Amino acid sequence: QVDRYLYHMRLSDDVLLDVMARFQAEMVKGLGRDTNPTATVKMLPSFVRSLPDGSEKGDFLAVDLGGSQFRAHQVKVFDDGKQSSQLESKFYPTPKEVIQGNGAELFDYVADCLLDFMETKNLKHKKLPLGFTFSFPCKQNKLEEGVLLAWTKHFKVRGVQDTDVVSSLRKALQKHKASFIPAGDVNVLALVNDTVGTMMTCGYDDQRCEVGLIIGTGTNACYMEEMRHIDLVEGDEGRMCINTEWGAFGDDGALDDLRTEFDRELDLGSLNPGKQLFEKMISSLYLGELVRLILLKMTKEGLLFNGKVSTALLTKGKIEMKHVSAMEKYKEGLSNTKEILTELNLFPSEEDCIAVQHVCTIVSFRSANLCAAALAAILTRLRENKKLLRMRTTVGIDGGLYKTHPQYAKRLHKVVRRLVPNCDVRFLLSVSGSGKGAAMVTAVAYRLAAQRKQIDAALAPFLLSLETLREVKNKMRTELEYGLKRETQASATVKMLPTYVCGTPDGTEKGKFLALDLGGTNFRVLLVKIRSGRRRSVQMYNKIFAIPLEIMQGTGEELFDHIVQCIADFLEYMGIKGARLPLGFTFSFPCRQASIDKGTLVGWTKGFKATDCEGEDVVDMLREAIRRRNEFDLDIVAVVNDTVGTMMTCGYEDPNCEIGLIAGTGSNVCYMEDMKNIEIVEGNEGKMCINTEWGGFGDNGCIDNIRTKYDKEVDEGSLNPGKQRYEKMTSGMYLGEIVRQILIDLTKQGLLFRGQISESLRKRGIFETKFLSQIERWLIWLSSLMTLGVSTCEDSIIVKEVCGAVSKRAAQLCGAGLAAIVEKKRENQGVEHLQITVGVDGTLYKLHPHFSRVLRETVKELAPQCDVTFMLSEDGSGKGAALITAVAKRLHNVGQ
């Protein structure tokens, strides 16, 4: 009979899955900037960005306003490796005249209670950080600020809505300045919702805890949301706790099909009709009243108590949640029911007791079902955010209904697990969540503030002012001039090597050319077909060969024999072994050239260490290796630097391109210099491409003022200590290693990875430069960081910040050097404004999400009279080598 009567309160799993989907839609609406104003579930950002990590320590105060009593707490957090804490509390009543009076009286009362507590605990003259638990919906713009949106839970204090409650508390504390010295300048570090406090308290004990749930007088949930989904807060890095304020779910009519006549009657008689409808269906504040309304109607219809309506049944609030819980107890339930109903002058029969007990069960079961559906929506969102098929997580939980009702917790757990079978959920009961939680939020804020200072100090040397960058530009300009002058060239750090490339493509180049490309761990052989005229085009065929480490660091003869072996394989593969084709050899290492086909290796870079090569002509070494093999012959026309190849490739498309830049594994620039300025080469007519080899800039100590201790560590651990210092600050080969050194330092300071240096992080070279791009793009960051032993979201944010600082400095330094080059070009041409194109290649420039932008901005800032266009090179080292060979052939033929 009762089942038939309360049929609409019994919810099937299909209905609950539908409620779950509706709640998910409301969450999305609440997170969106445009949809939030009309959303019922407000999804309020709490500005709590981090969960406890176990390293928190210190003494903290907390005050807790929002329940039937006001509480003051002192929380001691011990850094003893056991994550232990000690809580001391004092409870104060919340008189009706205070919770329904005016704002000044309320906050004066809070300040009085806090003063009394501090006197009791002998804390009056200590200045301790304070966390303020304020369990009402607030809009926060920062952690220590909150504007009250609306009162709930019978609070109706005038003049507080739409004001900052932290400011009001500070003002009240200020009044006590004379008698209470610290209070006048009290450090209110955090405003916390009780739900967030619950999550933080449980998060201290279980670091999987990322959801907080209150189910008591009121009800609410919070969880850690990805910043990229929170439109209401700037930034997309890391996570932030969202206070859902789910009590208002359904205020727009979304649950009208599930609300019964009893829900409507209860709502009409409440202090806030039409609001907090979901809360009115599930929180303990309303469940007793719901039971009373059902029993009253059943009695009036003669279904209970022989149709006799007592005064108790007519009196609002006469049946409370404690009665409902007592009546539902497993063994004593029936006797409790009889006793309670008798006290209410209802004189029940045994059938009446069974029926009333059943009513209580259906009402509380519906509450647990609806709560489970909304919680399941949050858990599903968390799992989808993490892109997991199955997720383990913990829900921190508090509230009288959950704690004291005999069946509620079991029902809630069971339904949640049924609705989200792919989530392994642990429910962890909070101990004093609202008080200890506020202290934990404050402790975390305190820890983060201290960490922020240390991290800022570590990264400060990487922040270069405009003045410093101008200084770098001017020093680079000085070094460029030293490299061009006969008397200073020998001691110059920027070698300014003549390439004997005296022209750029004019479009008449044609023919078949071979190109070799040696400059990294891979070696390429290419066949390039160039067409001129209206059908102007470049076709390329290439094959890539690996260079093993033992060859890179073996003898010169072994290295060049390996290269010739690769050429032989390619010629056979292409079927051109008998043809004597002109060849351009891209050799991306510092060479001193006496002509276009003679290049003496100045010194190895990029990890190469082959013996008997430095000081030798690499073209001769290649010719000798070809003779040793005695299988084919080649016309070696040009030895080419990849930077020059990059300029030539872009020059084929844009005649205005007279600068080439490599920003990848290595870093270098070339440009077309007026012959009259190149003292180390005879002749004053025309131009010649100068390979600056700017990686050696600073080897004389001129930029020591901007080198950090991390740069010095990387340099000392490299294959060529004291050399290529500028390259070690700007090129991809070294940036990952700089980042690794910083991460180790921060870990030693206890700021990362819980102070544990993983084995992989100890390995030199483990932090590849591609990591910088991936982390900065925030792509697959989890898999990258798992390799390094990153344990928390906060760790990954710090790693990203370190990567950002190192790569930004690299781009700025590169931009400062390039600004010196374009300014020199402008002065060479004697113009007020210069328009010029820079051909660029290199993975750092191409793949890093910010490097190219920062580089361009720096050049624009430091060389404002130059309009610089950046053009991405398409295979400068391969196509470029063939084009240089073609141009050299054309100029040779013209000369003849």
3D architecture notes:
With 896 residues, the chain is of the alpha/beta class. It has a domain of 357 residues: Nucleotidyltransferase, domain 5 (2-Layer Sandwich). The protein contains 32 helices and 26 strands. The strands form six sheets. The chain has a six-stranded mixed β-sheet, sandwiched between helices. Strands 14-24-23-22-25-26 form a six-stranded mixed β-sheet, sandwiched between helices. α4 packs across α5 and α23 crosses α25. The chain is elongated, with a radius of gyration of 37 Å.
Descriptive key words:
44% helix; Nucleotidyltransferase, domain 5; 896 residues; fructokinase activity; single chain; alpha/beta; elongated; 6-stranded mixed beta sheet
